[in-house]
Amino acid sequence: MSRRLVALIVVLIVGTGAITTTIAFASSNSAKAPSSAKTPSAKISITLVAGITTDAFYLTMKKGAAAEAKKEGVSFTYTGSPAAFSPPTQIPFLNATIARHPSAILIAPTDKSALIAPIQRAIKAGIPVVTVDTLITKKIALSNVSTDNPAGGRLAADALAKAIGSAGGDVGIMATTPGVSTTDQRIAGFKAELKKFPKLHFTSIQYCNDDTPTAARLTSALLAAHPNLAGMFAVNVKSADGVTSAVQAAGKSGKVKLVEFDAGPPQMAALKAGTVDALVAQYPYGIGQLGVQLAVKWLKHDRAGIKKHYGTPSAVITKANMNNPKIKKFIYTP
Ligand code: T6T
Predict the structure, then answer these.
(1) Is the C-beta atom of 241 inside 6 A of ligand 1?
(2) Is the CB of 182 under 6 A from ligand 1?
(3) Whose CA is nearest to atom 1 of ligand 1?
């Protein structure tokens, strides 16, 4: 008996269930394209899972990613928690994204350990992942695109020392949450660099949980406890906005020197007003662009030479250079 005839008889005996199975097998087989096959752009879909969707930094990254997706002819979606930067709020959005099965995921993990298992689930489901901005400690993502955050922390310490001047004094840090790769690295860089300035004394680090009102409350308490506080470093948009407003409310603008990471609209306004002395601005638009480029290259099997990490530039913005055309790309445009 020929093999085709045997196959036909088996199908007739087992009935519809067998046919369904055969079809399912055939289609799952064809989905497993040989590794050299090119995926047409029109079929590629990329989702960016933000740390927190409403943050000026991620909204600017979204613009860069969307522009690059348009250029590449692939579809793009933006998702994440609008309310908080934390694993419990981010993971449900990642899980919902995995269920929709885009071709690739870009994600800013909200914790360097807690997001390992959820990202592993995406990869196991066959979805390649690029981490953007933040990273996880296990190198399972196809690549990571981020600012050089330790260097950014060092730049912040240099800028604060310059703003405070030769008199020196006590300085504090307003941070978000321990366990976030970017802000942990900024803090480490800042503290290490501070040692170069013997007249600057590190007083304390406060954690506001990426919540602006909490940062304002903690800053007011710090100002009351340290009436001679000379300066503060705020590690990101949300902590910075709280620090700035508390210093303003205490009538200490210009007296307490402020250096902040990021360049959201309220931060740029505070720089212009003189409440803030310097901003270490990232290039979130470029991070989004590069993240999409890498995902598309990967999906089109143009994988040779893709590195595990790409650094994107940053700039120290002051009142003196804020209108320089070279600075423009570092100002966030949510
Ligand atoms: O500073 C950025 C980002 O780099 C960090 O990982 C989390 O906070 C921001 O989104 C700004 O709020």
Answers:
(1) no
(2) yes
(3) 236
Q: Considering only CA atoms, which residue is closest to atom 5 of ligand 1?
A: 182
CATH for the stretch 149-281? 3.40.50.2300
Task: Judge if the beta carbon of residue 208 lies within 6 A of ligand 1.
Answer: no
Cβ(198)–Cβ(136) below 8 Å: no
pLDDT band at 262 (very low <50, low <70, confident <90, very high): very high
- Tell me the residue ranges of DSSP E strands in the chain: 45-49, 75-79, 104-107, 129-132, 143-147, 169-175, 200-207, 229-234, 257-261, 278-281, 309-312, 315-317
283 CB under 6 A from ligand 1?
Answer: no
Our mutation pick for probing the ligand 1 site, out of 55, 132, 181, 212, counting the most ligand atoms within 8 A of Cβ, is 55
Residues paired with residue 229 on neighbouring β-strands, in sequence order:
170
How far, in Å, CA of 223 to CA of 170, rounded? 11
More confident residue, 148 or 1: 148
pTM (two decimals)? 0.89
Tell me the per-residue pLDDT of 268-314, one tens digit each, with 9 for 90 and over.
999 999 999 999 999 999 999 999 999 999 999 999 999 999 999 99
The two domains 41-148+284-312 and 149-281 share their CATH topology (first three levels equal): yes
Ligand 1 touching residue 133 (CB < 6 A): yes
Asked if residue 261 has its Cβ within 6 Å of ligand 1, the reply is yes
pLDDT in tens, 139-178: 999 999 999 999 999 999 999 999 999 999 999 999 999 9
Residue nearest to atom 2 of ligand 1 (CA): 236
Q: Does domain 41-148+284-312 correspond to CATH entry 3.40.50.2300?
A: yes
Q: Please calculate the CA angle 259-264-269 and round it to the nearest 5 degrees.
A: 75
Ligand 1 mean position to 138 CA, how many Å? Answer: 20
The domain limits of the chain are 41-148+284-312, 149-281
